[in-house]
What we know:
By secondary structure, the protein is an alpha/beta fold. The chain folds into 2 domains: about 5-270, Mur-like, catalytic domain (UDP-N-acetylmuramoyl-L-alanine:D-glutamate ligase); about 275-440, Mur ligase, C-terminal domain (Protein-Tyrosine Phosphatase, Chain A, Alpha-Beta Complex), CATH 3.90.190.20. Helices cover about 40% and strands about 15% of the residues. The chain contains 17 helices and 15 strands. The chain has an 8-stranded mixed sheet with strand order 4-3-2-5-1-6-7-8, with helices on both faces. A 7-stranded mixed sheet has the order 10-9-11-15-12-13-14, sandwiched between helices. The longest helix is centred in the middle third of the chain and has 19 residues, at about 235-255. The radius of gyration is 22 Å and the shape is globular. The chain starts with 6 loop residues before the first helix and ends in an 18-residue tail after the last helix. The relative contact order is 0.13.
Amino acid sequence: xxxxxxxxxxxxxxxxxxxxxxxxxxxxxxxxxxxxxxxxxxxxxxxxxxxxxxxxxxxxxxxxxxxxxxxxxxxxxxxxxxxxxxxxxxxxxxxxxxxxxxxxxxxxxxxxxxxxxxxxxxxxxxxxxxxxxxxxxxxxxxxxxxxxxxxxxxxxxxxxxxxxxxxxxxxxxxxxxxxxxxxxxxxxxxxxxxxxxxxxxxxxxxxxxxxxxxxxxxxxxxxxxxxxxxxxxxxxxxxxxxxxxxxxxxxxxxxxxxxxxxxxxxxxxxxxxxxxxxxxxxxxxxxxxxxxxxxxxxxxxxxxxxxxxxxxxxxxxxxxxxxxxxxxxxxxxxxxxxxxxxxxxxxxxxxxxxxxxxxxxxxxxxxxxxxxxxxxxxxxxxxxxxxxxxxxxxxxxxxxxxxxxxxxxxxxxxxxxxxxxxxxxxxxxxxxxxxxxxxxxxxxxxxxxxxxxxxxxxxxxxxxxxxxxxxx
Length: 472
């Protein structure tokens, strides 16, 4: 007996199943054909953002600055945390389920009629473009999915191109040197379109490519003087630096996008969900239910911080920022990672951080997630005793979050303990639900196929070849 799905679930589930078992094949031919067949084109200014780290946060900040200036702003990002609809927003409103139900089947039909073997990400990109056009967006902020040169988003001619940073990532696909990856990211440069580059990138390589293409070249640190922030002590400082420079460039060069300094400041103050996101949570030990307090500083509320610090550099930045922001306060960590990360290194960093008094290891409901017990084995076998830090394997994300809340609620209020949820983006949806967030979330029938899809998609963050997973 088949599943009884809503029209939205059926459309999104089918999207995830498109080319599920095919290897990653980057290119522009499919998406060019598909976008060309849709009835509305993007004819508004676009800010196109690529980079190894920071591109999602920079896109978020720029879009908030544009919205503060009164522009109807489309935002395209990936991956999402809790709902597929997060990927395409207009003025902060997720694409409605009804729009997905209407537009996705039309895109499927176009692919069938014209023999276009479009992938999940190509279809998602086309869906976003169509949605933004139908919603009459004044400006669009567009985050690349993977790479740049052959990324599906690279069919646009933007008002500004941005490259946030360059690091070793997806080496099987993009190249195994910083220079090779930089050139793939540089593929978003267009003749006559200015390009802005962040501080942590090979400027000589990118500048030379910009000269070949005919793209005016700018470095963020040459355009913005933000005092200490210019030193980019953490990722948010660096992202704010780049976003500030980008908004100023757009304001100076695009007549349809003028921003005042107050709009820029509003933009850089904002952060995407799960990027050093601090929230207050109420924990009921009787019902074992967490909830969000109705008023700030509610009595008995626990401080929780969520961050998608999922590798060593990100975790180093996270704990350094925690010490600067909450000096001397003890930390209780809930952490889960994908198998392809340096698990031993990440656990060593967490357990030896002086402020961490306990770590609760969890496993996301995702095929690439490392089992909590396996991670715990690395602590006990490879790294020895974790000093004063108690480490336990809790299993599910919900179990780990609730165990941390329960323990934190039992500590003396004077401790001011902070619960830190960090690691893979794949743990965040379940963690937010366990913390009592009331927000759009994909149903289990979507999440199940989404997890299988991600192993072999453009959004798989592993560089290892994998066998197709088995459907249940």
